[in-house]
Amino acid sequence: MEELVKMLDENLEYKSHEIVDGCIYMKIVSARTEVKCPFCAEYSVKTHSTYERSFQDLPIQGMKVTLVLNNRKMLCRNSECEHTTFAERFDFISGKSKKTKRLEAEIVRLSLNLSSVTAAKILSQNAVSIGKSTIDLFSRRVVAYGISPKHSTYLITSTMKRALNDSGYPQQLTFHSDQGAQYTSKAFRTLLRVNNIVQSFSRSGKPHDNAVAEAFFSALKKEELYRINFKSEREFYECVDNYIMFYNTQRPHGTLAYKTPERFEELYQQKQKKAS
Ligand SMILES: [Zn+2]
Q1: Does the predicted TM-score (pTM) go above 0.90?
Q2: Do 255 and 122 fall into the same domain?
Q3: Which residues of the chain are under the pLDDT cut of 70?
Q4: 70 CA → ligand 1 middle, Å
Q5: Could you list the residue range(s) of the whole structural domain that residue 229 is in?
Q6: 130 and 85 in one domain?
Q7: Which residues surround ligand 1, an ion (CB under 5 A)?
Q8: Do 127 and 182 sit in the same domain of this protein?
Q9: What is the CATH classification number for the domain harbouring 132?
Q10: What pLDDT score does 231 carry?
Q11: pLDDT computed for residue 259 by the predictor
Q12: Residue 269 to residues 48, 135, 141, 272, 276, Cα–Cα distance (Å)
């Protein structure tokens, strides 16, 4: 236990643990003698008060782990500082999160690898399916999307037309999708051909050939759809709409060095300008 706690943060000490209902509750304390004020960077040794904080960590032998920390509130003695007290902070947890960063990283890793079987779940829950979004591979921006209660050729051809129109009919495109009947339909293939778009398919039963789109859907489901009980189709559409806006303009992306798709494209265009 001691080692596990030290791996989390060397400033932590293991105190004790108990197992209740198959859950491990581990008491930990800070080992720091002096704590740096995050506002003025001065060190303090004076504790103002303590409060209990608990958060989840990676499971141990299949058991849930809750860390219980006696978090200290320190007095800042710097008269120039705008704050008289401050809470001790730790690198292993961000802000007011209820989970350690290493647990969050694990959840993200798992969700990226979630099979699209979960898509079927949405279908049955909401009686609405999401048309495959067209995702810009370079910046991961969602360039167009359509939603319809059922998969249809009309849905994907109209979405594709909108994507092409909005992006000014770019050249050298590849369209990647699963092998759904609507993507192999004559109407859709013709649309791709006249626009010189190369068509590419995921192998059957291997949705992760399309990892980028799958990652998007997984984020949409985990961060939004599974949290809400939709009362109407309209509510569902609005939620997807808002999420895509958020995804493109506000949500940092690990593969884009934690920039948003929109910001990433901006920086790329600035670089191109400088180079020319
Ligand atoms: Zn201070």
Answers
A1: no
A2: yes
A3: 105-138, 207-209
A4: 21
A5: 113-275
A6: no
A7: 37, 39-40, 76, 78, 81
A8: yes
A9: 3.30.420.10
A10: 82
A11: 82
A12: 51, 19, 15, 5, 11
